[in-house]
Specification:
GO terms for molecular function: dynein intermediate chain binding; dynein light intermediate chain binding. Pfam families: DHC_N1. It is a single chain. The chain has six helices and no strands. The protein has about 170 residues and is mostly helical. Helix 2 runs antiparallel to helix 4. The model has no long low-confidence stretch (mean pLDDT about 90).
Length: about 170
């Protein structure tokens, strides 16, 4: 029972730390007003890396042994642990999926940033790709994500036009 209590304490500390990571990942991002769409991809790549690292740690043999011991002892802390494990898995899958979809837009980000204001040739393909993401992504097709993406695309178009005007 002493071993079980010590292991439960360890799992409770992990639980608290994981909850903190989840809470921080859901907070509203603070970004500059003129940030472009590449920042969206970078955000999701960073989030994917964080959650994949966390998943790797959760699936490590050390953690599995502790969880096995607590399962054998029928510990009540495992209910919370399983819920968090599921939440981390969902967050990691969301980030991975969003990165995969946003990479389909990456080919437009360069031309959008360097083109002259006659960038209209890229816009139809860009919009078709955004529409495809909206229709097929199980995670990214929310109003919040799409609004953020369109805002960043618009910011990039404005920045490109300002640069063009200042150079001309």
């Amino acid at each position: 029972t002493q071993l079980t209590e010590k292991l439960e304490e360890v799992v409770m500390i992990w639980t608290k730390q994981i909850r903190q990571v989840l809470v921080e990942s859901e907070q509203i991002r603070r970004e500059a007003d003129d940030v472009g769409p590449s920042a969206e991809l970078e955000h999701w790549k960073s989030r994917m890396s964080s959650f994949n690292s966390l998943l790797d740690e959760i699936k490590s043999s050390r953690v599995k042994k502790i969880i096995s011991i607590l399962q054998a002892a029928r510990s009540k802390t495992l209910k919370q642990w399983k819920e968090l494990d599921g939440s981390i898995t969902i967050a990691a899958n969301e980030a991975k999926d969003n990165v995969r979809y946003l990479y389909t837009l990456d080919k437009f980000f360069g031309p959008l940033a360097t083109a002259s204001p006659v960038m209209m040739e890229h816009v139809p393909s860009l919009m078709n790709t955004v529409f495809m993401i909206y229709c097929t992504s199980p995670y990214y097709n929310t109003s919040e994500h799409m609004t953020s993406l369109f805002l960043k695309i618009t910011n990039q178009m404005i920045n490109t036009c300002k640069t063009y005007l200042c150079e001309g």
